[in-house]
Amino acid sequence: FLKPEFWRNPKKAIKRAYKSTDDYILHNVVGPRGGSTAVTAIVIDGKKIVVANVGDSRAILCRERDVVKQVTVEHEADKERDLVESRGGFVYQEPGNVPRVDGQLAMTRAFGDGRLKEHISVTPNVEIVEVHDDTKFLILASDGLWKVMSNEEVWDQIKERGDAEEAAKKLIDKALARGSTDDISCVIVSFLQSID
């Protein structure tokens, strides 16, 4: 996928890759039902990170002095009502529930979900962020983690452990212990060997 187009225009290349992935999923995996949010990251020469997401999977970047930066945008139905309506859909919220596209899907951007594809998008939000000397970790996780833990709580857990693999396992365990009922996945990319 890292073709010459990626080096010329990484944002455009990532968007094309998400579209190709969505086409594959729709035709070979889930058909009209089922789908997924996603977050991806490409680290370039340890100096830049290209982060993309659809839905509510999230990435945060952690730096020294407890600097935590969310580098993704969550594509919730109430926030992107204009997108849905411009494609002929509607956003509806039942009492006690979250707003949903056509009364069904809480996210406006996702892979799959063919039955709603006319009203949702697979176009990701793409950010290019610099890796500085004080960059410690990049955390990529699904909404099952973020529904029960804040960005800062996740960073606090990683600081306590110091080891990226161990911290990812502990974060999943903590999300389960807090009663998360959604899918939970977590990947931690370490830029330094240890935490001061």
TrEMBL record:
Entry superkingdom: Eukaryota
Domain PPM-type phosphatase residues, every copy: 1-191
Pfam families for the chain: PP2C
InterPro entries assigned: PP2C, PPM-type-like_dom_sf, PPM-type_phosphatase-like_dom
Alphabetical list of SUPFAM superfamilies matching this protein: PP2C-like
Gene3D superfamilies: PPM-type phosphatase domain (3.60.40.10)
Matches recorded under PANTHER family: PROTEIN PHOSPHATASE
Name of this chain's protein: Probable protein phosphatase 2C 28
